[in-house]
Amino acid sequence: MQRRTFISATAATAAMVASPMLKAQTLPNGPVRIVVGFPPGGGTDALARVVGQKLSTMWNTSVVIENKGGAAGVIAADYVAKQPGDGNTLLMAHINSHALAPALGLKLGYNPERDYVPISMVGITPNLLVCNADQPAKTVKDLVALCKAKPGQISFASAGGGSAQHFALEMFKLQAKIFALHIPYRGSGPALVDLIGGQVNYCFETMTSATPHVKSGKAIALAQTRLKRAKGHPTVPTMAESGFPGFEATVWYGLMGPSKMPHAMVQRMNEDVNKVLAMSDVQEKMDLYGAEDGGGSIEKFAAFIKAEQKKWTQVAQQAQVRVDG
Known about the structure:
By secondary structure, this protein is an alpha/beta fold. The protein has helices spanning 2-24, 43-59, 74-81, 95-103, 140-149, 164-176, 188-197, 207-216, 263-277, 280-289, 298-319; strands spanning 32-36, 63-67, 89-94, 116-131, 155-158, 181-184, 202-206, 220-224, 250-258.
């Protein structure tokens, strides 16, 4: 009886010790890097820092943001795809790296589905269709009429060939059945400078980049590109409300990891990111950047990515979008 009691007590003690160890194994050992495929200061970087700071506290470990800019996020995505599945290196994925680059048929060093595991959506932002105050058409209906009256003469800036802004324009051209001039820039900043200066007529631009110019009156927002109006622009109609049912061209951000990460770790991270996104101060910052509808299940994020890849592949094919790469 004494021996049985000793064995039982030993087993109970072992279980008590093992329990926290098992729980700890659902998180990485050591510091975590969230790799961002764009320079500091942009929307992807900003959202990664908001989430990373909270996860650092929650996980009681260092969570650092590492910027690996270049090729619209593809360089960072390629890097993370080749990292071990220990959870120490994650990616703040972006529509460019996981939907648009594949849609363009670019030769990528990674497979967006096979080499990654989705963790959680972080946020979705609309684009704004904007112009300066001197442009004659200040509604979508009038803009369509203007483009049809002057085919090929109305110019649209974008942040670059194959960017989310470029794809939004191509979708607009297809649905409106218009011919307009696409002028790619090296990023949102110079595109907006020339838009405000009148060197180009219109552009689809991320809400994060365009909002300061709209708020200052230097740019006018004709429409926004989600099916619902963003909290930050409640008076700006959607493209769907402007005569284009189903028109949705967003920029989205989500946390992903290398495909070999253990499922238990991915699930734990998903739950923790959901907790972070539900925090009131995080919600305030997300609203500031125009990022909505973050969180949800792993499966929901995976289905969203697949739908985005399918949609933009169809647009690329129908519009015959080509970029070097």
